[in-house]
Amino acid sequence: MSDANKLSSADVAKLLQDPNEENRAVAAAKVASTFGTSELTEGERKIAEDIFRVMLRDAAVRVRHALSESLKDNPDVPHDVATSLAQDVDEVAMPVIEFSSVLTDKDLIDIVRTRDSAVQKAVAGRSDVSEDLADVLADTGDEAVVATLVGNQSAKIKESTFGKVLDKFADSDIVKAPMAQRGELPIGVAERLVTLVSEQLRDHIMTHHEISPAMAADLLLESREKATVSLLEGGQKSTTVQELVDQLYDNKRLTSTLMLRALCMGDTTFFEVALAKRVGIPVVNAYKLVHDKGNLGLKRLFEAADMPQQFLPMARAALEVADEMLETGGDDRELIRQLMIERVLTAVENDVDTENLDYLIGKLQRVEAGDSNAA
Q: Which of the two ends of the chain, N or C, has the fewest CB atoms closer than 10 A to its terminal CB?
């Protein structure tokens, strides 16, 4: 520590000769800066603590603020001094409330329950927000406070607390956006959130968070369909198939189940690009192997991509329909889906796993319901 930050005999003399607010504030900062260093003896530490307690009663906010600012990140501050500063006016309290590790969960919960939203927001941004504290912050019902909480990557937040937040702020982009951008979300929260956010945030959740295979496939289908419609209407879509595949792969979301379901729902392009990514070959090579009439190409691709072998007959059945529709010039996407799913279910009979069977049957029923409604 430099001599400029130490309380010298000259500082004491100046304080005694002219104990004005400025000199008192300088003395407070220097005593606080010296506190906690190995240079102080136990007796000197006790004296410093007594000085702090005297300064806590100083009428000048400037003096108490100087003390708070200098002690905010000192872990050796006596608990009573830290809590007294935290209970002071906002200007004095904020530095300690934001940074002091001396304040306990109980202290912080009491502060949240008794102070205004500016102070609550400061608590929500701390680096050590516990699950219990997060729950109390969510209970404030203040949009800015809750947005700060869910945007705090270090805050520990229970799934039930996230649920409470979504109940209250389902229509608030200020809250939903930082929640979607969190590094990790419980699967139930991610799946609920994905139905409430913008298309851009849905893409982020799908590529960065754990969600069920069924919902991932549905989101992928929806995203790709919107991209197709946008291109047909002359609009622009920021995320290409390759970009989407890259994001899914980088975030370990490019699963075999997702790829198979996308194919069975008519998205052969995604399936081809995804296989190329997993194998590490150009897309054009993957395309040739996928559509190899000898059937060996797809088998080798599946092996290289570490795809489950029980998915192979399902993929072949879906690709047969895709090739047939390409030859006949058919472009009715709903019809293609219906034919693909029917062919897959017929081809594999009892060999398809239950989870994918339920998914495909559910999709087939939805497609057929759409056809009957249209009729």
A: C
Q: Per-10-residue mean pLDDT for the chain, 375 residues long?
A: 46 45 71 68 79 84 88 91 94 95 96 96 96 97 96 95 94 92 86 78 77 73 54 47 85 84 82 93 91 84 90 85 69 70 69 61 52 41
Token pair belonging to 65: 């603020």
What pLDDT is recorded for position 36? 60
The Cα 116–Cα 236 span in angstroms is: 45
Q: Could you tell me the sign of the dihedral formed by the alpha carbons of 22, 25, 29, 30, in that order?
A: positive
Angle between helices 213-232 and 354-374 (to 10 degrees): 40
Q: How far apart are CA 112 and CA 332, in angstroms?
A: 58
Closest listed residue to residue 187, CA positions, set 164, 217, 165, 208: 208
Question: Is 161:131 a contact under the CB 8 Å cutoff?
Answer: yes
Query: What is the pTM assigned to this prediction?
Result: 0.64
Quote the CA–CA distance of 2 and 359 in Å, as a whole number: 69
Where do we find the tokens 């869910």?
A: 150
85-92's contacts with Cβ under 8 Å and 24+ in sequence apart are 85/56, 86/111, 87/111, 88/64, 89/61, 90/116, 90/118, 90/119, 91/61, 91/65, 92/61, 92/64, 92/65, 92/67, 92/68
SS3 (DSSP) at 70: helix
Would you mind telling me the total number of residues written for the chain in this entry?
375
pLDDT attached to residue 144: 96
Q: Which amino acid is at 217?
A: A
Per the CB < 8 A criterion, the answer to whether 139 and 163 are in contact is no
Q: Which three-class secondary structure string do you get for 294-346?
A: CCHHHHHHHHHCCCCHHHHHHHHHHHHHHHHHHHHCCCCHHHHHHHHHHHHHH
Structure tokens at 172: 């608030």
